[in-house]
Amino acid sequence: MEKRQRFIINFLYFAIILAIAAVLLKFALPLLAPFVIGFLIAYCLKSPIRFLSEKCRIPWKAAAALLVLIFYVTVGTLVTLLGIRAFSSVSTLVGSLPSLYRTYADPLMTDIFERVEQAVAQMDPNLLGTMEYIGEQISQSIGQLVSQLSVGSMELVSNVASSLPMLFIRLLLMVISSFFIAMDYKKITGFCIHQLSGKAQEIFLQIKKYVVGTLFVCIRSYALIMFITFMELSVGLGVIGVDHFLLVALGIAVFDILPVLGTGGIMIPWAVITAILGDYPMAVKLIVVYLIITVVRNIIEPKIVGGQIGLHPVVTLASMFVGVQLLGAVGLFGFPIGLSLLRYLNDTGVIRVFRKPESEQ
Q1: pLDDT in tens, 309-352
Q2: Prediction pTM value
Q3: Which of the two residues, 195 and 257, has the higher pLDDT score?
Q4: Closest Cα to residue 337, out of 329, 354, 45?
């Protein structure tokens, strides 16, 4: 009975902690996102601020204000230039979708259906009328889909434009909060830490040190995965004869880091469009390159990430899948790090969740 009571109490304790963490991540984090991001920026600039303050012998607040200003000017300029270029390219592509369909896709589909009708007429002439009707319906449906896609994209652009005021307010809050947090970083963090008791303070500092180190390891691991994907794409696209294959491979490798989308978000539509334009051999080659990269990625990702954070590849893969399904990009990184943190705290004796095998005791 005592063991059962202990189990129930421990289960409820960790269930409550997990529930609180899930609620905070799901609801509180989006509301406080400008301040959280501002704190992360201030934390990342902490070491450069200390270096500048000590070497140049200037007050901490002045060094913090200067480095935060340089950071935002640099990042803001890059994001603005890239955003303008991306918006212009996407707008041009969306506006030209109907003409591209009329010029390339519609004649190709007409030719395909004519060949199918000829083959059907030779086998069973009675089915010819049915095939003509099906071909007309499919062609009309695709044309309507292209038109709806173009209109929907324009509506999306309009919705984004209408949300710009709120986005501007969030950005303004993030910038202001990062300035104040960076200038008073020691006071703010010191006040928060002193609200904890001695034991809780020690555990918190231990968790913070491990999480920061593990996060750096995860970033390094995904950088390695991106480099491997880039090399695979460079070789594959170079072999099949894609122009400017290095730049294309770099763009796809960066896109591959995004959860859910990955390499298939570019390679599959590329192969489909290539097949629609009539270049079937190139479409098959692109699919083969995509399959090879996907297989290699699914093999190396759990091993690299799991090996770096001390988890078994199966556990890492399962936690990444569950994390993406529940919390998206945050879950993709957060769930493996959370499991790794539990393992670390269990191994150091801070908590008792998992039993060690007798050979490891």
Answers
A1: 667 767 777 877 787 777 676 677 777 777 777 777 777 766 66
A2: 0.59
A3: 195
A4: 329
Which candidate, 94, 131, 92, 93, places its Cα nearest to that of 113?
131
Which tokens is 253 given? 């490798």
Q: Which residues of 292-305 are buried (b: 16+ CB within 10 A; e: fewer)?
A: ebeeebeebbbebb
C-alpha distance from residue 317 to each of 191, 303, 336 (Å):
38, 9, 9
Query: Which residues have CB under 8 Å from 272's CB, separation 6+?
Result: 283
Query: Which residue type is seen at 245?
Result: F
Distance CA 110, CA 131 (A): 12
Compute how many other C-beta atoms are within 10 angstroms of the C-beta atom of residue 103.
Answer: 11
What is the C-alpha to C-alpha distance for residues 201 and 193, in angstroms, rounded to an integer? 6
Angle between helices 329-347 and 313-327 (to 10 degrees): 140
Residue 203 has pLDDT above 60, yes or no: yes
Q: Structure tokens of 69?
A: 């200003």
CA dist 99 and 107 (Å) reads 12
Burial tier of 107 (Cβ tally within 10 Å: 0-12, 13-18, 19+): exposed
Return the closest-CA partner of residue 274 out of 235, 237, 246.
237
Find all residues with CB under 8 Å of 238, minimum gap 6, and list them. Answer: 245
120 burial type by CB count under 10 A (0-12 exposed, 13-18 middle, 19+ buried)? middle
pLDDT tens digits for range 62-116: 999 999 999 999 998 998 888 787 777 766 766 666 676 667 666 766 777 677 6
Longest Cα–Cα distance of the chain, Å, equals: 92
